[in-house]
């Protein structure tokens, strides 16, 4: 008999955080400004969403303009980091629809709430501060791209989250994110469910291409999904 869900791992931007694509708009601007390109936001989202941001830049350059240049990528990355810090200081950022309510319900269900992200820790913590989300109160942990050797689609961030709470069985974990690479991360980690959400980088058809267990339009839809999954564990 399978165990009940013990942890939900959420992506940040586009999944739990509504920031109107500030990250990828800033990333696009840095790529175009430094590289002299005219890439549309749709291409940046398609190839860069969910990835650690230096890797996102390298992938966009390779896929969109057939350029592999480590020095150029690093120059763009440093420009992006500076611009993003300024953008986060002035732009409005909100919890995504029903994020706070879901965090509270999951706590009542004794399910751990973990955020993971392709941001570095400094950027991720600045977001938490702006949202007034506190580790230990609103969420149980924050795992960032700079905390692990390998980033999405590798399972390192989810593996670290499990290790931090002594959860040995990955089939007691759910992963949810707004990009294909989020779904792949959950699958590679062996999660019970890998769920796509349509509130961010990739639309439903793009998410569907990664074969998620569910595609949802609002975070609140996770509650009945988890309850349905947990029913067999309650049957004697």
Describe the structure.
The protein is an alpha/beta fold and 236 residues long. It folds into two domains: 7-18 and 94-234, Rossmann fold (3-Layer(aba) Sandwich); 22-90. The protein has helices at residues 22-35, 41-48, 53-65, 70-90, 99-108, 121-131, 156-164, 180-188, 204-208, 222-230, and strands at 7-10, 17-18, 94-95, 112-117, 141-144, 173-177, 193-197, 214-216. It has a six-stranded parallel β-sheet with strand order 5-4-1-6-7-8, sandwiched between helices. Helix 1 (22-35) packs across helix 2 and helix 2 crosses helix 3. The longest helix has 21 residues, at 70-90.
Strand-helix topology:
Elements: E1 7-10, E2 17-18, H1 22-35, H2 41-48, H3 53-65, H4 70-90, E3 94-95, H5 99-108, E4 112-117, H6 121-131, E5 141-144, H7 156-164, E6 173-177, H8 180-188, E7 193-197, H9 204-208, E8 214-216, H10 222-230
Parallel strand pairs: 1-4, 1-6, 4-5, 6-7, 7-8
Antiparallel strand pairs: 2-3
Pfam family, one: Hydrolase
Protein name: HAD family hydrolase
GO molecular function: phosphoglycolate phosphatase activity
């Amino acid at each position: 008999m399978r165990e009940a869900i013990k942890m939900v791992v959420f992506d940040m931007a586009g999944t739990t955080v509504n920031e109107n694509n500030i990250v990828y708009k800033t990333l696009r601007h840095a790529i175009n400004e430094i590289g002299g390109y005219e890439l549309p936001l749709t291409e940046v989202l398609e190839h860069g969403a969910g990835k650690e941001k230096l890797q996102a830049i390298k992938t966009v350059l390779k896929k969109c303009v057939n350029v592999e240049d480590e020095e150029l990528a690093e120059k763009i990355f440093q420009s992006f980091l500076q611009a993003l810090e300024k953008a986060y200081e002035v732009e409005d950022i909100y919890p995504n629809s029903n994020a706070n309510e879901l965090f509270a319900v999951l706590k009542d269900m004794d399910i751990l709430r973990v955020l993971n992200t392709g941001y570095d820790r400094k950027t991720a913590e600045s977001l938490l501060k702006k949202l007034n989300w506190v580790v230990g109160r609103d969420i149980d942990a924050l795992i960032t791209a700079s905390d692990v050797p390998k980033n999405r689609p590798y399972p390192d961030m989810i593996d670290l989250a499990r290790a931090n709470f002594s959860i040995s069985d990955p089939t007691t974990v759910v992963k949810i994110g707004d990009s294909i690479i989020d779904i792949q991360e959950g699958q590679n980690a062996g999660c019970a469910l890998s769920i796509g959400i349509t509130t961010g980088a990739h639309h439903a058809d793009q998410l569907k291409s990664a074969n998620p267990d569910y595609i949802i339009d609002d975070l609140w839809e996770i509650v009945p999904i988890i309850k349905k999954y947990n029913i067999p564990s309650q049957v004697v």
